[in-house]
Amino acid sequence: MLELKNIKKSYTLANYTQLALNDISLKFRKNEFVAVLGQSGSGKTTLLNIIGGLDHYDSGDLIINNKSTKKFKDTDWDAYRNNCIGFIFQSYNLISHINILANVELGMTLSGVSKKERRQKAIEVLKKVGLENHINKKPNQLSGGQMQRVAIARALVNNPDIILADEPTGALDSKTSVQIMELIKEIAKDKLVIMVTHNSELAHDYANRIIELKDGNIISDTNKLEKQNNNKTYTIKKTAMSFLTALSLSFNNIKTKKGRTLLTAFASSIGIIGISIILSLSNGFDMQIDQFEKDTLSSFPITISRQTTEMSPEDMMSMTPDKSDSYIDEEVIYPYDTASSMLIHKNVFTDDYLNYINNINPDYTIGVSYLRTMSLNMLIKNDDKINYVNNLSLSSLPKELKESEETFLESAYDLLKGSYPKDKAEIVVAVNEKNRLEKNILEALGIDTSKEEISFDELIGKEIKIILNDDFYKNNNDYFVPNMNYDEMYDEGITLKIVGIVRGKEDNMLAQIVNAMSMSQGAGNILYSNELAEYIIEQNKDSLIVKAQQDLDYNILTGEKFTENYTKDDMLAYLGAKDIPYIINIYPVDFEAKENIISYLNDYNKDKSDEDKIVYTDLADTFSTLSSNIMDAIGWVLIAFSGISLIVSSIMIGIITYISVLERTKEIGILRSLGARKKDVSRVFNAETFIIGLASGLIGIIIARLLLFPINAILKDLTNLDNVAIMNPIHTLILITVAIILTLIGGLIPAVIASRKNPVEALRTE
Ligand code: ADP
Ligand code: MG
Q1: Among candidate residues 358, 346, 355, 353, the one with its CA nearest the CA of residue 306
Q2: Which of ligand 1's atoms lies nearest the C-alpha of 760?
Q3: 149 or 452, which is more confident?
Q4: Residues with beta carbon inside 6 Å of ligand 1?
Q5: Could you tell me the CA-to-CA distances from 45 to 469, 718, 760 in Å, in that order?
Q6: What contacts 116, CB < 8 A, 6 or more positions away?
């Protein structure tokens, strides 16, 4: 059944070749107990290893069941070892971190025997060697004789045809040796047992054939087989270790070095912690922006101006000055038109469009404000002296599209004194948060501004007269001049009365925006209703000066020709004859309403030519895009740094795995002797790095999660925002995967080194 034909084997050292086997030819019976005797160094172990397929011959042939092994590939040898051979070593070679049962099962695990069958067979064979009461012990809890029994059980369990024992009693006392020999003799009843020993007494007592080796040559054979009569053919099942087996093997190994594994996993989790925190921050920041946008920025108006630049936030970013290294060194000048290089769009506000705006679903908006260029002619009487005022800036409040319990003014402004206006003739003074009001407004109202403080009462009750065009402009042949008779005009004017002092509510963004949007100075303002503005326009539309201006192509007041910059329409708007604003601000109720308004505005542009399109700007959108872009940029830099720490940690994993490979060299040899493929060995180490990677990912995520508590507390202190950093579950999964992949990569080279280890040498290491 087994035949060696002219086997030669030598080992080449640095400058010297050692012949271990010199032209060995041997035939074995299917069932015999062969003892191989010989002095140390005579080639006994080499012979056994070659028969067992653990080592390979240089020349000659090994014939198994009539099949030459000359063309065997690595996997064929692995399958051969697993199926046909049982090894018993002098030093037992058990895997120390798994129990007796698992040690015995290992060979079957490799060949994919089911767990139940494995267990049953292992227990059966352990009973046979008298160890059924020790199956859950670890090898180091047994005596030498017991360990060798485990090794015998392991060799037998797959029911191989050949048992190879290399000095099985070499480490045992004589009494135990006899017990072991009895056991081996028992096995030899129905198997081929080849046992190496240098104890010729034992050999003669137990073996039925003794082969003696000397310097790699057979010098005697007591029961030589001349003719092989075997017609068995060679077929065997290949082995393959499942990843799960590799995992459990590595898991058990890792359990023996918990501290180190934990430290390694922790060290390599630092990168994960960093990235995870950054991602949480940017994720949370985005969510905050979203929320902020919904809460506050949503009240930012959608602005539609007569002239608008079509600029994306990216464009605005790119407008920051170029770096100095791009300065050019030429003595020429390049003409450049800034205006034309920015895309300027002229929005033409037709009556149709203004109607469209008026028809916005009232539920969506708080109001629509119109900034107009209409000049208001005002007279103010102080101490019986009437003064003409034309530089006093008044601001029109937004037009409310819907009747509601609270007017815009009431919702956005606190009343400090007096009352809110009840009709269009009543106006209010809005002071800023420090109760300031522009000096020129106060002076125009006839208030002595040399005083440090002015009481609210001095303002309340003050009257301003608005003079309509027909009273204000007198026709003088071809041109119009202002009427200088103030007394007459004062009596004809529309009386506006200051009825209250108000101030934008502290938390009301809208009030602040209205102040900022109106052309007024920063410090306070006089507010009037949109209704008043519309009433004045209605009155002035048919005034004489307007009618006269409509027929002329020069400015009726100055005699100047109109230009592209100042058109007749502009003049008519100035005279209050046109209700065409130059800026429209639409104030949405909330975030959803804003979306609805935007889609309503987009609908208008459908099917319109580019020229007729009305372009709007959403200031809030610009803000939030800008800020999250900045956050993204910072985030990427930090992620790059953490990424480096991840790479460093995967190199570290490589080193640690390499150390583990060195430590587990013996285990590699044992696995190979049991028929594990190279692939299976690398799988064992990949399983180990997988576990470390998974642990480091989990540790990283957990630590990062814990760190978010203090981080959020600090951010709450700084920004008053709750829970800024929030983990995204998808990021968490991705990061754990990244940790596993990186550690796997780090451990790959050591795993390959492990799988390439020579099994014979691996077994010899301690
Ligand atoms: P035995 O088991 O009879 O003591 P071995 O088969 O182990 O002898 O060794 C036979 C010869 O081959 C010895 O001279 C030994 O030094 C040499 N030898 C065995 N294995 C190696 C090896 N891996 N590298 C170099 N020389 C070896
Ligand atoms: Mg030896």
Answers
A1: 346
A2: 23
A3: 149
A4: 11, 13, 18, 20, 38, 40-46
A5: 122, 75, 10
A6: none
Atom of ligand 1 nearest to the CA of 761: 23
Best residue for ligand 1 mutational test, from 7, 13, 16, 18 (most atoms within 8 Å of Cβ): 18
- What is the whole-number distance in angstroms between the Cα of residue 213 and the centre of ligand 1? 13
For the four alpha carbons of 216, 217, 219 and 222, in that order, the dihedral sign comes to positive
- Report which bound ligand comes closest to the CA of 166: 2
Helix (H, G, I), strand (E, B) or coil at 325: helix
CATH superfamily of 2-238: P-loop containing nucleotide triphosphate hydrolases (3.40.50.300)
Q: Where are the beta strands (DSSP E) in 510-635?
A: 525-528, 583-588, 617-618
556-584 pLDDT per residue, tens: 888 889 887 788 888 888 888 877 788 88
Of the pLDDT bands very low, low, confident and very high (cuts 50, 70, 90), residue 325 is low
Within the chain, which residue ranges are assigned CATH 3.40.50.300?
Answer: 2-238
Q: Which long-range contacts (CB under 8 A, 24 or more apart) does 729-737 make?
A: 731/276, 731/279, 731/280, 731/283, 732/276, 732/701, 735/272, 735/275, 735/276, 735/279, 735/697, 735/700, 735/701, 736/272, 736/694, 736/697, 736/698, 736/701, 737/697
pLDDT number for residue 384: 83
pLDDT tens across 388-440, in order? 887 676 777 888 777 777 788 887 888 999 999 999 999 999 888 788 888 88
Residues pairing with 417 in the sheet: 501
pLDDT at 153 > cutoff 80: yes
- The stretch 277-284 carries a mean pLDDT of 85
Q: With helix as H, strand as E and coil as C, how does 587-622 read?
A: EECCHHHHHHHHHHHHHHHCCCCHHHCCCCEEHHHH
Angle of helix 258-295 relative to helix 678-719, nearest 10 degrees, comes to 40
Instruction: Tell which atom from ligand 1 comes closest to the C-alpha of 48.
Output: 6
Of all atoms in ligand 1, which is nearest to the CA of residue 39?
Answer: 3
Measured in angstroms, how far is the CA atom of residue 677 from the centroid of ligand 1?
24
Strand partners, 583: 305, 371
On average, the pLDDT of the chain sits at 85
CA distance 84 to 78: 10
Q: How many angstroms does the Cα of residue 20 sit away from the middle of ligand 1?
A: 6
pLDDT tops 80 at residue 311? no
User: Over 90: is that where the pLDDT of 162 sits?
Assistant: yes
Residue 92 has pLDDT above 60, yes or no: yes
Report the alpha-carbon distance of residue 584 to residue 370 in Å, rounded.
5
Among all ligands shown, which has an atom nearest to the Cα of 214? 1
506 C-alpha to ligand 1 centroid (Å): 92
Return the closest-CA partner of residue 168 out of 189, 186, 152.
Answer: 152
Question: Cα of 761 to ligand 1 centre, how many Å?
Answer: 11
Q: What's the pTM?
A: 0.62
Query: pLDDT, tens digit, for every residue of 14-59?
Result: 889 999 999 999 999 999 999 999 999 999 999 999 999 999 999 9
- The pLDDT tens digits for 223-258 are 888 876 666 777 777 777 788 888 888 888 888 888
The secondary structure of residue 233, as a DSSP letter, is -
pLDDT at 519: 44
**Average confidence (pLDDT) over 493-520:** 74
Q: State the distance from the centre of ligand 1 to the C-alpha of 164, rounded, in angstroms.
A: 17
Residue nearest to atom 10 of ligand 1 (CA): 43
Write out the two tokens for 98: 């798994």
Neighbour tally for 541: CB within 10 Å = 16
> Cα(510)–Cα(297) distance, rounded to whole angstroms?
9
Q: What are phi and psi of 50, to 5 degrees?
A: -70, -40
Q: β-strand 378-382 against 463-466: which pairing, if any? A: antiparallel
What is the residue whose two structure tokens read 């190496």? 196
Q: What is the pLDDT of residue 524?
A: 66
